Amino acid sequence: MNDQYDINKWKGLATKNLFIGDYFIDKKTSAGWYLYEKNVSTKTSDYLLTEYYLQHLINKDEAIKIDIHECASWDQAHALLSQYLQVHMAQELPRTRQQKERLGDVDYAGFGDMEQHILFTRANMLVVLNTIGHNDVSVRAMADAIDTDFYLRPLQEEGTLSAVINFSFSINKTDEENILELQLSIQDNLQRPLWYKLFAAGGEFYKRNDQLFFNSPNDQAPKISLIIKDEYGAWTQKNLS
Amino acid sequence: MSVILKAIKFNHDSNALTHDAITIRRNKTETISVPEWIDGASVNAEDSLAAYAMQETSGQTITIQARFHLVNERASSFEIRAIDANKAPRDQGGCIGWLIKLIYAIIQAFFGNVLGDVKTRVTNFSNNDSGFVSFDLLNPKIWTKGVGVYFTEWQWQYRRTRKQKWTNMQMSRHKIYVILEAPKSSWNQTANSDQLPWTEVLDYSCNWARFAKTRDEAATKITESVYGLGPATFEYDCPGGGSSHYASWTTFNCTKFLEKLKGLFGNGKYINCTDCATIVTTFSNVLGCDLWSSRMQSSFKLNPLLAIGSNTWQTACGWSGFSYHEVAWKNNCDANDEIFDACLQVDADANPTGPPHSGMLPVNIKFGDCNTMDYRLRLSPGVAGGCTNCNPAPATRIRRTVL
pTM of this prediction? Predict the structure, then answer.
C-alpha cells in the first residue's frame, strides 16, 4: 500500500469549524455546463457519495465527472482521501498548482500542465474531479468554484432566500464536557432542495450516528452562523448564538 | 386453417443449465423475460436472446419449449418441427457458385445457426392451445463452434400426418450466445439478481473470445482485446497519476464502461491497472473463466513497459515505479499462479531492463519470483526497491460487483 502520504500532517490543515450538509452543485456553480447525469449512492456509514456528470455547453466534447463525498467529519474526509490516494498507481501525487487561493484543506492533482484530475478536502467534504470527455479539459476552475461554495461566507447579513425557508435550530448540552448537540431542521416551503453550511468562530463540528455535534473551544455559548443555499445559489444567513 | 407459433422458451428451467439456456438479463436495469420469443413482439433476432454453456450441456439433449394455437382447425394433433431457414445455397457451379459457397461458409462459421433444427414431435391441442410443449434440438453445434454470438433463424412447419407435406408457419429469429461454462462470480444464476450475466457484456465477451474452447484461450483473447482498445478508446491514466475510473474498492461500473465502448463518454478514456484487471476478470468470468483481480505491492521500481494506449517504451508515464499493480490472476493469486495483464506489455527478451524491447502482452504467464524470468522479473528489475518489493498480495483478491 502507498505510505507516501502523511495523514497526520493533514490534521493541522483541516477547517474544523465548518460543516457542510446536504450539499449539491447548484446552477450558479455549474454555469456553462450541462448536468446530464447525477447519481446519489446509498449512504454508507462513512459518507454519502453524489456523482455529477457535466458536459460543456459549447465545447461538447469536453465533460467532467465530479464525485462529492459528504463525510461525517473532517477526519473521516481525510481517511477517505487517504484511501483514494492508495488506488493511484503513481507512488506520490503532487499538490495542485499554487494559485491565489489555496484549494481546499488538503489537495492533490495528477501530472502534466493541465490539471485533469484533482482531489481535495474541505472540512467534512471530499471532492474528486476528472476529465472524462473526448477532449481533455482542466477541472481546476470547477474545483475552485466548488471549494468557494464550501468556505465562502457572504458579506451581507441577509440574503434573498429567507422568506421561503422554514428552519429550526437548538443547541443542547451533553454529558461530555464542551460537546454540544445541535438540532437543525431546514425546509423550503416549496419543497425545493437546500443545502447548508455551519460556521463557528472556533471549535469543531462533526456527526456521530447522523447526529450533529459541536466541540466548543470553551464553555461560553458558541457563535455559530448558518448559511442556507438553494439550487440557484440564492442564500440566507442566520446567526445561531 | 393454420397452426400458429405463439411463444418459445429457451430458459425453461431456471434451476438448471444442462439441457436449456442459462438465466440472463440485458444489463443492470433491464431483465429478459421467459418466454424469450413471443409472436408479434419478437421480430428481429435481438428481440429473442438466449445463452448456452458448452460444458454443462455437453452430451446432453438440449430442449426448448414452444406453444401453439390453432385457428379454424378441427384436428387436435399435428406434427410440428423447425428447420434452419438458412440452408446452404444450391451449387450453381463455376466461380460465382464457388464464391457464394465460400461466403456462405464464412458467415455460417462466424454467425450461423448453432442450435441446429427442432426435432419433429406430435403436438396435441386442447381448446386450440397446445400449452408449452418440449422439443429436442437436433444436431446443435454449440460444442464444436466454441464461444461466440450466433444467429438462428427457424422455419416452423406443421403437418397433420406423415403422408402430408410440411406447411410453413412463422419464422423465428434468435440471437444465441455460447459461453464455456457456468459464469463465475461476481456473475451468478440467482433469480432476479442484477449479477445475472448481462447480454450487453456477452456481446463483447463472446466476440472478443470468439471460437475459444478453454478458459485459458478465452481469457487470453479477452486480455488481448482489452489491451487492443488502446489508444482509440482507452489509454493509461498518466495525467491522473494512474487512478481507477471504472473500478472502485468493491464495485465495477460496467454500465459506464459499456457506454465508453459504444462511443459515449462513460467515465472517460483514462484507465489504470485496477480497471484493466477488473475488466478482464469480469468479461472472462461471464464466459465461465475463473479469474480474480488481485494486487502485487508495494512501491516497486519498473522496467520499461508499453502501457495501454501508449507507443513509448518507458517506466509507466516516466514514473520511477508503481505504488501497486493489479492484474487478472488465476487460482490463489500467488507466485506460482498465472496472470493476465491487459494494462501493459513487458519486454520479452533476455534483458527486460533496457533496449531493444520485444513487446509481450502477459497472458497466462506465471507470476514467478526474482530469480526466474517470469512476469515478475519482466515487470520489475532485480535491484533494490524492485522485484523484491513486488510481492503478490493474495489477500487483496476480489471479484467486483458489477454496477
Answer: 0.93
